[in-house]
Design goal:
The protein has 16 helices and 25 strands. It is globular and about 70 Å long. By secondary structure, the protein is α/β, with parallel strands linked by helices. Strands 1, 2, 3, 5, 15, 16 and 17 form a seven-stranded mixed sheet that branches. It has a six-stranded mixed sheet with strand order 20-21-19-18-24-25, with helices on both faces. The protein starts with a strand and ends with a helix. 48% of the residues are buried. Helix 2 crosses helix 3, helix 10 runs antiparallel to helix 12 and helix 13 crosses helix 16. 37% of the residues lie in helices and 22% in strands.
Length: 494
């Protein structure tokens, strides 16, 4: 009977589960949707037990597929949305709904942390999305819940606990709490002590660590009989990188979804990088990664479609963009539709088009938007790689990897080789790889990557095109400073 592992990706809008065999082939996949609880503006919550229910339904549906007949599930691992606060009492039950990564209620708590520690803490910017400000908010605004708090977890760790009984947190997710020292890989209890949060820390484990088997109750609910090993898993960005084969210092991940991410790996302890660059532990125990975020990457293209290309497909938009010229006929776009994360860390900056003229056409708007998204990602890339010469290959995933035009544009702007995946499965594949490695299917994660990950055609940079883009990029970088004050004035008009 063929063995498979399950990779479970707990996202914000859905749970996705894939079954992968020893050859790295996806033999089945399912998805269950999730909903947000938004009781006030800026509040984003979910019921932790709704995650467990969705995961169980997703697995049951997967096991019911014809493709899973005569297959033996040997192991399970997880990828999960980062930063979300799951507060448990002494009985191991959630005290309240989980406060998610995209919840923005903690601005005051972030300011309080900055007053004590400066603009960065444990090599990371202090932002509303992280877990520590959520803990402080709970302490200040819900004292009864705070009094009942015994231990905190992150989303996928809670699901894993409910399926195994093990309460723990692995390093790649713990790094996004603002309480883990990424170099020592220990909880920084001094930070916690200064903020008076008490001993609420779970034990720490590696992403590939075996945490136990599925409980008998879970197996019975799923209709399974054999013992199924469960492995810790990783944060969604770490698993996304792993699932794209980005596990060494010569590769960079460029992911364009609703938001955009640029991620580079390192085996060395890095200094605090500033510029709102995140520094986290990878799913590989000997690696860390740096990450820059563009808040409105694919979302900028969605906005463009809604406003100017409503009756046209995304392929049509990209095709028209390719018919414009480098620099979009002198039109630049800053993709700050919902503020910006890297490098500016400004929730109040807004987007703009610069350089409109009487000859500006729809195709120029399309190209300027795509170029602006890519410039924003390139800005993060430059900050993260300027001190290193090893980065020479960009693995492109998401919306930016779906067209020859945009892939070549990335290669020309980044001045690097750009390669998409032949089969893109996202963070769920990274989770499946952690299970495969944990089971001993492979001697190393490198061997697992070589079997599971297949790359497509490589796009090589055109040096003349890069020189042209660099001129426009140098102007693009000035847009933020030139428009920040104007934007603030606009927002202050009542």
């Amino acid at each position: 009977m063929e063995e498979v592992v399950l990779g479970i990706d707990l996202g914000t809008s859905a749970v996705k589960t894939i079954a992968v065999n020893k050859q790295g082939q996806v033999v089945g996949q399912t998805s269950e949707s999730l909903s947000l609880i938004q009781t006030e503006p800026g509040y984003n919550e979910q019921d932790p037990d709704s995650w467990v229910e969705a995961v169980m339904e997703s697995i049951k549906e997967l096991l019911g597929l014809d493709e899973l007949k005569n297959k033996k599930v040997s192991g399970v691992s997880f990828s999960g949305q980062m930063h979300g606060l799951v507060a448990l009492n002494k009985e191991g039950n959630p005290i309240r709904n989980a406060i998610l990564w995209n919840d923005t209620r903690t601005t005051q708590q972030c300011q309080s942390i900055k007053e004590q520690f400066g603009d960065t803490l444990l090599k990371n910017p202090i932002l509303e999305g992280f877990t520590l400000p959520k803990l402080l908010w709970l302490k200040e605004h819900e004292p009864t819940h705070w009094e009942a708090l015994d231990v905190f977890l992150l989303p996928k760790d809670y699901v894993r606990y409910k399926m195994t009984g093990d309460i723990s947190m692995e390093y790649s997710d713990a790094a996004g709490t603002l309480l883990l020292d990424p170099d020592t890989k220990q909880w920084d209890r001094q930070v916690g002590s200064q903020l008076d949060i008490g001993d609420i820390y779970p034990k720490l484990i590696h992403s590939h660590d075996f945490v136990g088997n599925l409980t008998e109750d879970v197996k019975a609910a799923l209709g399974l009989e054999n013992e199924i090993a469960v492995f810790a898993g990783g944060a969604d960005n770490a698993c996304g990188a792993l699932g794209a084969g980005v596990i060494n210092e010569t590769q960079t991940l460029c992911s364009i979804g609703t938001s955009g991410v640029v991620l580079t790996c390192s085996q060395e302890n890095e200094q605090s990088l500033g510029n709102n660059i995140h520094y986290f532990n990878h799913a590989l125990s000997h690696m860390t990664y740096k990450m820059g975020v563009t808040l409105s990457a694919g979302d900028s293209l969605n906005w463009l479609k809604r406003t100017m290309f409503e009756d046209e497909s995304f392929d049509d938009i990209v095709q028209q963009a390719s018919e414009s010229q480098i620099g979009a006929n002198g039109l630049l776009f800053a993709p700050y539709l919902q503020g910006e994360r890297t490098p500016h860390g400004d929730a109040y900056i807004r987007g703009s088009f610069i350089g409109l003229n009487s000859n500006t056409a729809k195709a120029d708007f399309a190209r300027a938007t795509i170029e602006g998204i890519t410039y924003s990602l390139y800005e993060s890339y430059r900050y993260m790689t300027q001190a290193h010469t090893k980065h020479n290959r960009v693995i492109s995933i998401g919306g930016g990897s779906k067209s020859d035009f945009w892939l070549q544009l990335q290669a020309d702007i980044f001045n690097a080789e750009v390669t998409p995946l032949k089969y893109e499965e996202g963070p769920g594949m990274g989770a499946a790889m952690l299970a495969a490695y944990g089971l001993g299917w492979f001697e190393s994660m490198e061997a697992c990557v070589n079997t599971f990950i297949e790359y497509d055609k490589t796009y090589y940079p055109n040096s003349e095109n890069h020189k042209k883009y660099e001129q426009y990029f140098n102007v693009y970088r000035q847009i933020y400073e030139q428009t920040q004050t104007l934007t603030q004035q606009l927002l202050n008009i009542k």
